[in-house]
């Protein structure tokens, strides 16, 4: 039985992965921002679980909440075999940038800085496992942006913001962090980043869209990959027998190329340094 933490486990791919892993007999720790939605998801997960899953409240836009979640998780489990950094925000209705209490643009905070800080806080629990793994998540949409780069010096600058730019910018950072973390762990941690294609949204998320957006999105949603299918991808990687198939893989576990900028060693090291500074210089186990 593996101990597996999943962020954003109350809906979408995260919920499906949590459900599959719990049903397979693993101890799932579901990290969710909204307590009410988290409790509903937990009941869903535990309906088929062989061992009861646990719920931990975690708001990835708030460093204090991330630290508290890590402390609660440490009280629940003596080690952590797998961390799946699944949670992300990609709300196309956020037409103007929003900022966290710490002054960070919301997409950058939730989709990059939050997972970065959570992984740091959980690194000692991961280091206590026999074969620890961190699974991060990027997007197939990056294929349309082969020249995308990290905007050093403009990370929280609202002048270039659109929800699409902010989302893919943070997803590039997740790929680069995956590569750097593996290097810094020096063989003591396996990491991979999944290139997720367009995923079919849950009906409640579609219903919450404005009418025009819902109408325009309907054809794309019908053609998107079911969340259940991608949940199986997460679950398979979490329990992979042997070495993970690559540092950056698609939903079928095939190694794929990242945007060119992700292979710039100096840029990756700079991203690590600015992420450390932005999250209060957390301590890592490696």
UniProtKB/TrEMBL annotation:
<keyword id="KW-0560">Oxidoreductase</keyword>
<dbReference type="Pfam" id="PF00106">
    <property type="entry name" value="adh_short"/>
</dbReference>
<dbReference type="InterPro" id="IPR036291">
    <property type="entry name" value="NAD(P)-bd_dom_sf"/>
</dbReference>
<protein>
    <submittedName>
        <fullName>SDR family NAD(P)-dependent oxidoreductase</fullName>
    </submittedName>
</protein>
<dbReference type="InterPro" id="IPR002347">
    <property type="entry name" value="SDR_fam"/>
</dbReference>
<dbReference type="GO" id="GO:0016491">
    <property type="term" value="F:oxidoreductase activity"/>
</dbReference>
């Amino acid at each position: 039985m593996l101990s597996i933490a999943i962020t954003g486990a109350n809906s979408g791919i995260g919920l499906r992965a949590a459900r599959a892993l719990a049903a397979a007999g693993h101890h799932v720790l579901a990290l969710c921002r909204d307590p009410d939605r988290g409790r509903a998801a937990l009941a869903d997960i535990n309906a088929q679980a062989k061992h009861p899953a646990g719920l931990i409240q975690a708001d990835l836009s708030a460093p204090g909440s991330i630290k508290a979640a890590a402390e609660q998780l440490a009280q629940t489990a003596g080690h952590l075999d797998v961390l799946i950094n699944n949670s992300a925000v990609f709300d196309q209705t956020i037409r103007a940038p929003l900022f966290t209490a710490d002054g960070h643009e919301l997409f950058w905070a939730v989709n990059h800085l939050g997972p970065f800080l959570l992984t740091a806080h959980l690194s000692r629990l991961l280091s206590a496992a026999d074969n620890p793994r961190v699974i991060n998540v990027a997007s197939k949409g990056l294929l349309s942006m082969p020249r995308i780069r990290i905007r050093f010096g403009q990370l929280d600058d609202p002048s270039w913001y659109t929800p699409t730019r902010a989302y893919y910018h943070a997803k590039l950072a997740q790929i680069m962090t995956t590569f750097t973390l593996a290097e810094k762990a020096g063989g003591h941690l396996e990491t991979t980043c999944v290139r997720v294609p367009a995923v079919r949204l849950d009906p409640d998320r579609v219903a919450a869209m404005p009418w025009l957006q819902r109408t325009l999105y309907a054809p794309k949603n019908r053609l998107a990959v079911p969340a259940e299918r991608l949940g199986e991808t997460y679950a398979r990687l979490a329990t992979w027998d042997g070495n993970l198939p690559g540092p950056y893989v698609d939903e079928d576990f095939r190694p794929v190329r990242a945007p060119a900028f992700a292979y710039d060693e100096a840029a990756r090291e700079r991203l690590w340094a600015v992420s450390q500074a932005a999250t209060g210089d957390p301590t890592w186990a490696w």
